[in-house]
Structure formats: C-alpha cells, structure tokens
Design brief:
Blueprint (H helix, E strand, L loop, with lengths): L4 E7 L2 E6 H22 L5 H32 L4 E7 L2 E6 L6 H30 L5 H21 L7 H14 L2 H28 L3 H31 L21 H12 L4 E5 L2 E6 L1 H5 L11 H4 L8 E3 L4 H11 L3 E6 L2 E7 H14 L3
Helix pairs in contact: 1-2, 2-3, 2-4, 3-4, 3-5, 5-6, 6-7
C-alpha cells in the first residue's frame, strides 16, 4: 500500500511511520489553512500568525490520527493480534495487522476503539479551546484547538460510516458476523456497502468539480476510488485468510524445485534457467546442500561484461529467514514473508533440507479459481 515511509517514533512497542504521501498532503493542507481557511475565519491576524496556526493544526492533526490508530492497535494487541506498525499516508492512517481478528468481539472492539478515541480527542480539544479563549492572549491557540476539535468530530463521524474499509464497516461486519456466524457473508455485505459509499463519494466529487470546486472535487474522487478499491479487496483478503490460514506450506509447494549449481556462470544461468523457466529466484545447491539463492537482482549485480566468467556462487544471496520457510509453517506466514521481503517465491525447507518452492502466483491462482467456483 505504501511507498517510502520513515519511522518517526515507537510507542508501546509499535512503530509509527510517516509515508512521503502524508508529508506532501500535510504541506498542502498547511498552505490551504494559512492562506485561505484561517484568514477567512479569523480576520486581522498577521501572515506569520496564520502560518503558526497552520503548523500547529497539522501537528495536532497528525497526532490525532496517530492516537486514533493507536487505539485500534492497543485493542488488537489486547486480543493477541500481532501488529506491524502505524503509518500515516495520503488518506489518513492505518494500523497494519499481521492477521485479521478471529472473533466478532475482537473485530467490534478493535474497530470501535478508533472512533471513540477521536470523540475523546474532540472533547479534549474543545475543552482546551474554551480554556485558551478565556485568556485573551491565547485566542490564536484557541482557534487551533477549536479547529482540531471539529476535525476529530469529522474523523469520528466519517470513520463510522457502515462500509468497509472504514471503522463503521468493520463494526457492521462484526455485528453481521455475530448474528450469522458467517464471516464470509458478513464481509461480502460490508464490502457491497463500501462500494456503494465509494460510488456516492465519487459522484459527489464529480459534481463539486463541475460546480467549480475542482480541487475539493478531485480530492473526494480520489478518496472514493481508494475506498472502492479497499472494499472490493476485502472479500479477496477474507477468502485468502480462510483458504491459507492453518494450512501448511507443504500443501501448496512445488515438490520438484529447479536448483542451480554455484559453479555455473551467470551467462549460463540466464540462458539455461531464467529464459527456460521464467522464475525470478532459484535455490543454489552444492551436491545435496542448500547454499543460497539467486535471481535477476543477484545476476545483475555483476557487470554484464563479466557474466561469462562470474559464477553463481560469487553473487548468490545467502540462505536466510527472508527467503526460506519451513514446510510445516502456515501458508499465510509465507504470504506475509513474501510481502515483507518483496519476493514472489520462497525456498521451502525441512530440517534445513530443500524440499520445495512456494510461489505467490500459484497461491493467487488457486485463490482465484476457488472464488470463481464459488461464484464470487
């Protein structure tokens, strides 16, 4: 989902990251607040004061989103759900879980925690605005607190719309799941609501653009497209969890892996293996011992002029946790590892021995076939 992101702090063992897209959007919002919104709402202040207010508002907004996502994260950890990080990105923030909640109660509690945190922040900033307003010298700060109070109310209300991937959609899914006992049906219902909401948001954005509010209209169209994509993907992700969770890697691996000798030249490797099999990673075997892995990245690390003399063993990648997985491991763990390492294939081992290969394409093809057979 994200591009370049930078870790800015660590809270309760959770990494908080800022995606470059958030920095760009935050800069734009700060400019809009300093040059347009605050001068219209609060006349008579200096340009410096407006920019100071805009900077304070952006910092407060970022902290509000982090606290919103942190509430999700802490509840998730309380239910034993492993958590990767919180990332601020172009459309707000997201807590990246390693796996989905396993019960309706966990889903409901985790989903509702974010909006409740935003409501609490709305009250807190409102109280701080009243306190600052009572001190005449702090009127500019009071305006910032009032703005942050309103933003948190909006954040809570928008997130409670009953459609995936918003918090309200997860609350709705938890309720349907609890009553029906069918998480797949609940996910499909919440996904349809998400697509419907996204379509309405896109239509609203188009209308605004046609009425002359092009920037605002474009922003809502982009939000609508993001929600529509995420809502459509939710069913796919749930099916993936159902198919691969608690299923061992050995059930999905190829049991006849194509291996490469470390004594092979890169030229021969390209001609005899890459062009022949079209794989982007091969295990490297010396006799019966697994000694490494090689793909296009490793091959290209050597100058092309030296490919005829450079050996696979000279450029291969060492065997590590990033490119191997145990045959008894959960297939969802394999998918997670592929995502983290940005690999489409993993070497499957058993007691340190090569026993197979597992490919992302094969897993996704199987998932697509299963969904097609079920008419989804």
């Amino acid at each position: 989902m994200f591009g370049l992101s930078i870790r800015v702090l660590r809270v309760f063992g959770i990494d908080v990251k800022v995606d470059v897209s958030w920095a760009l959007v935050a800069t734009f919002i700060a400019w809009a607040l300093a040059e347009g919104v605050f001068p219209q709402l609060y006349e008579g202040l200096s340009p410096f004061a407006y920019w100071w207010m805009a900077l304070a508002a952006i910092i407060g907004l970022g902290l509000s989103i982090i606290l919103h996502e942190l509430a999700h994260s802490l509840v998730a950890k309380a239910f034993g759900l492993p958590l990767k990080s919180i990332t601020l990105f172009v459309f707000g923030g997201v807590a990246q879980l390693e796996e989905e909640p396993g019960t309706p109660l966990a889903e409901f509690a985790m989903a509702i925690a974010g909006p409740l945190a935003s409501v609490a922040l709305a009250f807190l900033f409102g109280w701080m605005a009243q306190g600052a307003a009572s001190i005449g010298a702090l009127s500019a700060l009071a305006n910032v607190f009032f703005y942050l109070s309103m933003i948190n109310w909006v954040l809570a209300a928008f997130n409670m719309l009953p459609a995936l991937p918003l918090d309200g959609g997860r609350v709705y899914r938890a309720i349907v799941w609890a009553f029906t006992g069918d998480v797949s049906a609940a996910t499909r219902s919440a996904s349809r609501l998400g697509v419907a909401l996204a379509t309405a948001i896109i239509a609203l954005g188009v209308v605004w653009a046609l009425l002359g509010q092009f920037a605002a209209g474009l922003w809502w169209v982009l939000i609508g497209l993001f929600i529509r994509s995420a809502a459509s993907t939710a069913v796919y992700q749930e099916q993936m969890q159902r198919l691969f969770k608690n299923a061992p890697v050995r059930d999905f691996m190829s049991t006849e892996p194509v291996s490469v000798s470390p004594e092979l030249t890169i030229s021969a490797f390209i001609e005899q293996y890459v062009y022949e099999y079209h794989f982007d990673m091969f295990p490297v075997m010396r006799d019966t011992a697994l000694v490494g892995a090689i793909g296009l990245t490793e091959a290209k690390s050597a100058p092309r002029s030296s490919w005829a003399t450079t050996l696979v063993g000279d450029v291969m990648r060492p065997v590590s946790e990033a490119n191997t997985i145990d045959a008894a491991a959960d297939a969802m763990e394999a998918l997670s590892k592929m995502h983290k390492s940005r690999l489409s294939r993993l070497i499957v081992t058993e007691n340190g021995r090569l026993v197979g290969m597992i490919a992302l394409k094969d897993l996704l093809d199987l998932l697509s076939l299963k969904m097609a057979l079920e008419g989804r």
